[in-house]
Design a protein that fits this description.
Elements (H helix, E strand, L loop, with lengths): L19 E7 L14 E7 L38 E9 L9 E5 L3 E5 L4 E5 L5 E6 L4 E6 L2 E5 L3 E5 L5 E3 L16 E2 L2 E6 L5 E8 H6 L10 H20 L11 E2 L9 H6 L2 H9 L3 E5 L2 E2 L4 E2 L9 H5 L28 E2 H9 L4 H8 L4 E4 L3
Parallel strand pairs: 3-15, 18-19
Antiparallel strand pairs: 1-2, 3-14, 4-7, 4-11, 5-6, 5-10, 7-8, 8-9, 10-13, 11-12, 13-14, 16-17, 16-20
Helix pairs in contact: 2-4, 2-6, 2-7
Length: 377
């Protein structure tokens, strides 16, 4: 087809077997597999039972169309990253001593490679064999014990599976009540043991950003699909903003912690308990909120008390236009503030999704003036 010629495409969809709302994302590609710029589109599908009444249409906050005249919910593909970004999350830490042996124990169901930070190979370890790593402040050395062999290194130590399988951090014992008091000690990607200038040894999980998002446990898996999509995009934007900014924890050389101070991350075990959230991650891959074409920092919290709070009133500093105070729609019933109050109120967003709002309308309500863009494949 010659350049500039308009083409019309017809598509047929088979409705999902289970009633509910889903969103599918499409792009146009050449026969060579190259994605055409600005060809991304998101289509929301509402499936009902054969004899069910038509869904009630709930008014949504109007969204101004893009300057090009594109439909308000259209999400353009504007690649800012050639490859999927990498997340480095601090999952555990301890104060090392020069006398006690306090190893971080790592193993997997597949062989693993133990390397230095510079990539130099220390050992290849059989499946099921524990790798024990500790740090001594006196001589600034990492001590590794594998079977009956000891290694001493001066660089941070990395453990990576040879094939796609989670690593078990057997020494990790932190449990969460709302997650059933499980240890949740399985992590995709690489585990790195690093001493930070703050005086603590950190266990850092390095993995692709999308895999990281699947391990967040900040919402119920039974929540509406449109809320899951909104939550995932807010979480992805928050994480990618800090990746692009060099991370919150520069002394430890990681981006975020896996706690409520940043985002609550429980690795592969958390992902297995949230298949619906995982589907939302996959359906919205690479989509973030931007302001002036830059990825926006997008905090969120549990429950508002009638309105959200603006950024400056909570954290000071220069105002952020997209984090202004906004009133809750009347259908939200929150009476007590739970959390910092800035950005998206998760419980209000769930109520909006339950009443027919799509994820675009939810996000545009809580984050003033943002645009939705897909920034990587």
């Amino acid at each position: 087809m010659p350049s500039g010629v308009v083409a019309y495409v017809t598509a047929r969809f088979r409705a999902p077997a289970t009633p509910g709302t889903t969103t599918e994302h499409f792009v146009l590609r050449t026969l060579a597999g190259v994605t055409l710029a600005d060809s991304g589109v998101a289509i929301t599908i509402i499936s009902t039972t054969a004899d069910a009444p038509a869904p009630t249409v709930v008014p949504m906050i109007p969204i101004a169309p893009a300057p090009s005249g594109a439909e308000a919910n259209f999400i353009p593909f504007l690649p800012q990253y050639k490859n999927e970004p990498t997340m480095r999350v601090g999952v555990a830490y301890y104060k090392p001593t020069n006398t006690g042996w306090v190893p971080q124990r790592i193993r997997a169901t597949v062989p693993v490679r133990v390397t230095r930070e510079d990539g130099g190979l220390i050992a290849t370890v059989p499946a099921g064999t524990a790798v024990n790593i500790d740090y001594r402040p006196t001589d600034r050395t990492y001590h590794i014990h594998i079977n009956n062999t000891w290694y001493t290194e001066h660089q941070p130590i990395r453990v990576t599976p040879t094939t796609s399988a989670p690593l078990e951090l057997a020494s990790y014992t932190k449990k969460l009540v709302w997650e059933g008091n499980r240890a949740d000690n399985h992590f995709r990607g690489t585990i790195e043991i690093r001493y930070a200038s703050t005086g603590y040894v950190w266990t850092i999980n390095e993995l692709p950003l999308e895999e990281y998002l699947k391990g967040l446990v900040e919402t119920n898996d039974r929540a509406p699909a449109e809320f899951h999509a909104a939550q995932v995009i807010a979480a992805r934007s928050f994480a990618l903003f800090h990746i692009a900014s060099g991370g919150k924890y520069t002394k430890g050389k990681f981006v975020l912690t896996g706690t409520a101070s940043d985002q609550v991350y429980r690795g592969d075990d958390g992902a297995k308990r949230r298949p619906n959230l995982v589907r939302a991650v996959e359906a919205t891959r690479g989509i973030v909120m931007t302001y002036d074409d830059r990825v926006a920092v997008t905090p969120y919290f549990a429950q508002s008390n009638g309105s959200t709070r603006d950024y400056t009133s909570v954290w000071g500093g220069a105002p952020k236009a997209w984090l202004a105070s906004v009133a809750d729609p009347p259908i939200c019933t929150g009476k007590r503030l739970i959390g910092h109050g800035v950005g998206m109120s998760q419980r209000c967003a769930m109520q909006l999704a339950s009443n027919g709002w799509n994820f675009q309308s939810i996000l545009h309500h809580f984050y003033t003036g943002v645009a939705l863009q897909k920034v990587y494949e």
